[in-house]
Amino acid sequence: MRIAGGDPQLGRELIQRYGCVACHAIPGLSSYGANVGPPLHRMGERAYVGGVIANTPDNLVAWLQNPAAIDPRTAMPRLGISEREARHIAAYLVKPH
């Protein structure tokens, strides 16, 4: 999967800035003890995002921006991630590690 307009290196920096590793184990990033949310390994190979929508670039970006708009029961908070930032984060998550 390729994320148009996404830069994986910027995504890595944004993941660290937004503190995603506090809840998720993410490949290539130190996240010891992060087990609130699911591990995010091999995101590009998954069928679903959040267990509720097809894993497409646009859906992954939308989920990162506002997960509760897609699944009101999710525990994942809205962090104020812009579409541009979400594209970078998604690019990091789907790249092979």
TrEMBL record:
Q: Which InterPro entries would you find in this protein's record?
A: Cyt_c-like_dom, Cyt_c-like_dom_sf
Per its record, what are the GO molecular function terms?
electron transfer activity; heme binding; metal ion binding
- The Cytochrome c domain extends over 6-97
Task: Give a yes or no for keyword Methyltransferase in this entry.
Answer: no
Q: Which UniProt keywords apply?
A: Heme, Iron, Metal-binding
The protein's matches in PROSITE patterns, at most eight in alphabetical order, are given as: CYTC
| Keyword Heme among record annotations | yes
What name appears for this protein in its UniProt entry? C-type cytochrome
**Organism, as annotated:** Ramlibacter rhizophilus
